[in-house]
Amino acid sequence: MPSSSFKLVLTALAVVLASCSRDKGFDPEHLAVGPGGLVGNGPPLNEGDFAGGSDVLPAAREAPLPDDSRPPDCDGQCVAYCNAANLHNPVNRGLCRSLWGVGLSHRPIQHAEACRRLFVDMTGRLPTAEEAEATCTGNWDATVKELMNSSEFIFVNQRRAADRFLYSNEVVNLQAIYDMDRLVEKLYRGKVPYDQFAAVVSAHPVLTRRHAAPGDKVEALFRLFLGRPPFEHEKADMSRLYWLWHSGYYDHPQLGSRLPDAFIRFRCLTKEGEVDPVKKGECTSVLWGYHELVLTPDLRASQDRQINELTVWNGLLSPEEWGQLQMPGRVLSQEVAFWERAVDDVLELYLGYDVSSQVPEVRSELVRWLLDHQGDLRSVHHAVLTSAAYLQSHEGETPTAYRWTYGPLKQLEAEVWIDSMARNTGYTTSTCDHRLSQPENLLRAGSLSTYRVLENSRWSLDAQGKVDTRYANLARTLGGCPENIVGGRFKVVSILTTGTQLSFVNELCNPTLEPSQTAAPIERLLPEGVEGARALTPELARDVAAHQYRTLLGRAPSAEELAEAQEAGGQCLLTRCSAEQFARPLCFAMLSSAERLFY
Predict the structure, then answer these.
(1) Helices and strands in the chain, H and E counts
(2) Cα–Cα distance between 21 and 438 in angstroms, integer?
(3) 465: exposed, middle or buried (C-beta count within 10 Å: 0-12, 13-18, 19+)?
(4) How, if at all, do strands 257-265 and 245-252 pair?
(5) Rounded-to-integer distance, Cα 487 and Cα 568, Å
(6) If you ran DSSP here, which 8-state letter would residue 180 be given?
(7) From CA 242, how far away is CA 263, in angstroms rounded?
(8) What does the alpha-carbon distance between residue 169 and residue 388 come to, in Å, rounded to a whole number?
(9) pLDDT tens, 75-89?
(10) Which of 408, 393, 418, 395 is nearest to 591 (CA)?
(11) Could you give the 3-state DSSP secondary structure of residue 475?
(12) 186 and 152 in contact (C-beta within 8 Å)?
């Protein structure tokens, strides 16, 4: 019978051999290496057929309107009214005592407005008229479920995670970033519960290498999952669970460069490599129960001369060791505030304001909903996206200033704006990759593998083998495609951003009809079969406008908008203008309108 130490040696040797085998078979299409691959490999937690999307919304109860200066007061009749409303959506249930039950009404939704909002939030782009008509049919429950099952929904949430965790291949090993991206995909496919996701993140190199000192790691974890910084005693205690982590560099055998990565130091041990009964307190958290975190060295460990301690690269850790290191995330997920923050993040994402602080019942209902669905975060997304708070118009009159009585109005992100512009006009553009915010760092290594990585990424290479950064430069001026070295994404309306946007729209539409290689093809701006040189008539102007509203704004025009176009066509007729001379300035007017900036 082999001894326990002999078994440990065999285990370590197997891990090393597996690592060598993996490096030998380096695949630029499957770069992910890390703890994200150890979880979420089974079926989804739920089938995705979430309830609550087809509520019949009640009318406002006949009652005096509440005073805007204080929260609405729901009396006994109000409570009885809401209990009898038979609402299944948790957001609607939470809102009732501050909305319909106290005599307030929500704003009825406009179909085109709701469809546009759902597409932007769930797919990261504006819909075409054909997509809107094909997808936004029937009830909104079916629309949300269809969009939630799309690859675009996964991608847009992966990009949001990149903003949240500040992916930067200058600070973190790109293979760990790809692993985190894979973990986020599993989260939004419903294969990983949110508490398990937080546990993996708490020991993931994307966090442990990004933040240097143990206290910095604790603060980042608290802000990410509790929405607040830790108190000093919380930071001091949990820092002991991060005492083992060390920031170093990993010499990648295929990429031919040193990659920043996280290592484990063997602390709180005696000289013989056993747990030191005196020092182990430095690696033990006691605030949330007794949690000791000490790892012992084996063949995987090597001497780090910089710190004069034995360390092991995180890529050699076993699943059991990853499980031990994820203790901080498991500790936090036991807090009610952890689940409250999870639903608050989704509410803020889709509504654009903090409804939980104003109507706490919404948060309470959603927390219960999330736990009833085994921590499947998709259930919260579905509930918010099919709720009355989200599916109501921001246009029109409201008798009060209560924020939840009218719909959200938000600014488009840079990538959404650019991608929608290009898609609608047929403009060919490159893109950026949220996983590799500094692609130039890879090119400096000059190896074949780095080029293969970039070729399989979302970045484009030009004929000289350099990264095409035209898209990124435009997006970064507008706050998108962040490099995440110091700061991240931003949104702002300023002279610089407005000038940048107008310049890009001018390039697309070419209203002055200058010779251009980048302008949208005239065939995209005119109805099928209409040539640019054709003489314009009021009727043709009306047809051109109808076509552009559908193509560029993704909706049918109103009768008033068509009448304005026909009148403008009559004015243009006096100067004998052509269809192209009318279509290109109209394109500029539409794409520079507020409807293309806010949704």
Answers:
(1) 27, 6
(2) 28
(3) exposed
(4) antiparallel
(5) 47
(6) H
(7) 11
(8) 41
(9) 999 999 999 999 999
(10) 418
(11) helix
(12) no
Signed CA dihedral, 566, 571, 576, 579: sign only:
negative
Give me 426's structure tokens. 């047929």
Contact by Cβ (8 Å): 433, 484 = no
pLDDT tens-digit readout, 286-319: 999 999 999 999 999 999 888 889 999 999 999 9
**Cα 556 versus chain centre, distance:** 30
Q: How far apart are the first and last CA of the chain?
A: 69
Radius of gyration of the chain (CA): 28
* pTM of the shown model: 0.92
Query: For residue 35, what is the DSSP state?
Result: G
Chain-centre distance of CA 223, in angstroms?
A: 17
Q: Give me the residue spans of the domains in the chain.
A: 4-44+152-332, 76-138+335-405, 414-477, 495-596
Relative to beta strand 302-304, strand 291-292 is unpaired
Write out the two tokens for 302: 């090597």
Q: How many CB atoms lie within 10 A of CB 49?
A: 9
Place of tokens 């499980």: 323
Among all chains, which residue has been given the structure tokens 């993040």?
345
Query: What b/e readout covers 73-98, taking b as 16+ CB neighbours within 10 angstroms?
Result: ebeeebeebbeebebebbbbbbbbbb
Q: Which of 538, 562, 536, 568 is nearest to 549 (CA)?
A: 562
Distance between CA atoms of residues 487 and 313, nearest Å = 28
Non-local CB neighbours of 63 within 8 Å, separated by 6+ positions: 77, 78, 102, 103
> What sign does the dihedral 586-589-595-597 (CA atoms) show?
positive
Q: Three-class SS of residue 124?
A: coil
Q: What is the DSSP letter of 598?
A: B
Residue bearing tokens 């307190």: 281
Give Cα separations from 149 to 145, 153, 487, 536 (angstroms).
6, 7, 32, 45
Q: What local confidence, expressed as pLDDT, does residue 516 receive?
A: 87
